[in-house]
Write a structure and sequence with these properties.
The protein is an alpha/beta fold. It has one domain: Spore Coat Polysaccharide Biosynthesis Protein SpsA, Chain A (Alpha-Beta Complex), CATH 3.90.550.10. Helix content is 34%, strand content 24%. The chain has 9 helices and 11 strands. The strands form 3 sheets. Strands 5-4-1-6-10-7-11 form a 7-stranded mixed beta sheet, with helices on both faces. Strands 2-3 form a two-stranded antiparallel sheet. It is globular. The relative contact order is 0.18.
Length: 243
């Protein structure tokens, strides 16, 4: 039986919010919320935090999680998880779960895994959610996605896509930053040179698309709050305290 591993890249030196994996909410660091959701996945065999910082490693091991150290020179999360994947010959599928998504659920994680496994032609799987809030549509921090009739991604952008020239109210879909990879596809993508589109949009999935790789999309209802700024952190903290 093929084995799926969830790898959670976590950096200490975030530009917008340093040390965010270690910020606590109700006595637990953000990274712990993500790890606990990963552990509840029914389709994954294990979860591993990938970091280049001993402080994150110590925090993960304190709550009983598994953590592996990676090089500090990696330019993106995919490079970091690829280093982990190469160490484990028994991994067939790798799920890249961001360490700053504390509202992610095991059910959504399993949808991403199943989407990849069910389509033998897909290199990568990812998730989107429908949005109609104009502020989100115009927010460059909210990445938008368009896909074909078979749910294969056509493009990702920080701009509103599609452009609403004819005001036909086509739906907009926001990307959720979770990726399932065939192991060989992950290694292939991380060996490719960064593309102009990737550099312009600062979106690494465009490297895969521009090189002809297939990204399968699944639509989910979840609207998670990723922790990118201090405002995101305060919003999540307030939500958890109210609940």
């Amino acid at each position: 039986m093929k084995k799926t591993a969830i790898v959670i890249p976590a950096r200490y030196a975030s530009t917008r919010l340093p040390a965010k994996p270690l910020l606590e909410v109700k006595g637990k660091p953000i990274i712990q919320y993500v790890y606990e959701a990963a552990e509840k996945s029914k389709l994954a065999a294990c979860a591993i935090v990938a970091t280049d910082d001993e402080r994150i490693k110590a925090a993960v091991e304190k709550f009983g999680g598994v953590c592996e150290m990676t090089d500090k020179e990696h330019k993106c999360g995919s490079d970091r998880i690829a280093q982990i994947a190469k160490r484990h010959e028994d991994f067939d599928y790798i799920l890249n779960l961001q360490g700053d998504e504390p509202q992610i659920t095991p059910e959504v994680i399993d949808i991403a895994i199943k989407t990849l496994i069910d389509d033998k032609t897909a290199d990568i799987s990812t998730l989107v959610r429908k949005i109609d809030d104009i502020n989100q549509i115009n927010n460059p921090n909210c990445v938008k996605c368009v896909f074909d009739n078979n749910f294969n991604a056509l493009y990702f952008s920080r701009c509103p896509i599609p452009y609403e020239r004819n005001r036909d109210k086509s739906p907009y879909y926001a990307h959720i930053g979770i990726y399932g990879y065939k192991k060989e596809s992950l290694i292939k993508m991380t060996n490719l040179t960064q593309t102009n589109l990737e550099q312009q949009e600062s979106l690494e999935q465009l490297r895969a698309l521009q090189n002809g790789m297939k990204i399968k999309v699944a639509i989910v209802e979840l609207n998670p709050t990723g922790i990118d700024t201090i405002e995101d952190y305060e919003k999540f903290k307030k939500l958890m305290e109210e609940n």
